[in-house]
């Protein structure tokens, strides 16, 4: 009797399996491509990242209206990492395990990006870095599951160095936030400048903590050294606070100032007329300076962004837009969002974007977008400063070579990493 019961139970379970499994499989088959967006959406980074989300959304709306990707609609899962590595790692894991995202895009802080990258490697999930720019992410600490769709600290530092080398400045002082980003970009600038200009001298380094608001001691220390120029990797609210305080000391009349990212609207608009003229400012994108041949595409993006956000797009905003299109194109080519195949497809792939052409390099996953340096000036048509005498460096011309990347990775491993 007991044997007959178990035999009947097995038959029933087999029948249920035949009935339920296809239904469950159909339910699990996603009708969307789910993308995780992981940014610091509160605190000092919010001025950069809120518009980036809008850029992602505009691209998704356009792509979905044309039928989506592989016949599926794009769906975003957005999380705030609060600019903290621990929170970012936790949210990354939750998006992958609970929200079932296909891959994750985002991050603004270099330190946070490095932490997230290690988790992506561990979980074998693709992480697409869109804003954070430490060269170590795709260099020393690069791996199969991380790619970058933006410039990096090497491109930024070396672009500034090329522009500075054309000036008659010889004595330099350095200031930057005391974490990954500040140290790497300051080194990228200084090491490259020495190869482009003879007789340059470093007078000193200052490393205020991220979020510093009183720069008076830093300002007086640098002025007392009488440098020809100061190179700064301060950003966001820190940079705005520094410029406002330094003006009171006559800082910008006494020395030249080279500032990474100060040519972006994130800085120019909040400062308005308080931004001094004549600062050497680097920038990725300017809404009023489209790439040749991309004028119409840029105009259309600017109009859509202004309608949705109420202001002109910044560098981070357009990179959210462009990055979404780059991934959509790569998914179509790969025919899947499976991490290994998508990562392999991205590497070596070239894109024609509103920002111009770019390639994701096959050996490090780093994009080759160009970068700019110019000088601030008062424009009669805008309540904020614009840029003139602009020079552009193409990414491939200033990035580390494959041999340099391989050497850096070997040295990193030797240190026990």
From TrEMBL:
<dbReference type="InterPro" id="IPR000709">
    <property type="entry name" value="Leu_Ile_Val-bd"/>
</dbReference>
<dbReference type="InterPro" id="IPR051010">
    <property type="entry name" value="BCAA_transport"/>
</dbReference>
<dbReference type="InterPro" id="IPR028082">
    <property type="entry name" value="Peripla_BP_I"/>
</dbReference>
<dbReference type="InterPro" id="IPR028081">
    <property type="entry name" value="Leu-bd"/>
</dbReference>
<protein>
    <recommendedName>
        <fullName>Leucine-binding protein domain-containing protein</fullName>
    </recommendedName>
</protein>
<keyword id="KW-0029">Amino-acid transport</keyword>
<comment type="similarity">
    <text>Belongs to the leucine-binding protein family.</text>
</comment>
<dbReference type="Pfam" id="PF13458">
    <property type="entry name" value="Peripla_BP_6"/>
</dbReference>
<keyword id="KW-0732">Signal</keyword>
<feature type="domain" description="Leucine-binding protein">
    <location>
        <begin position="32"/>
        <end position="366"/>
    </location>
</feature>
<dbReference type="GO" id="GO:0006865">
    <property type="term" value="P:amino acid transport"/>
</dbReference>
<keyword id="KW-0813">Transport</keyword>
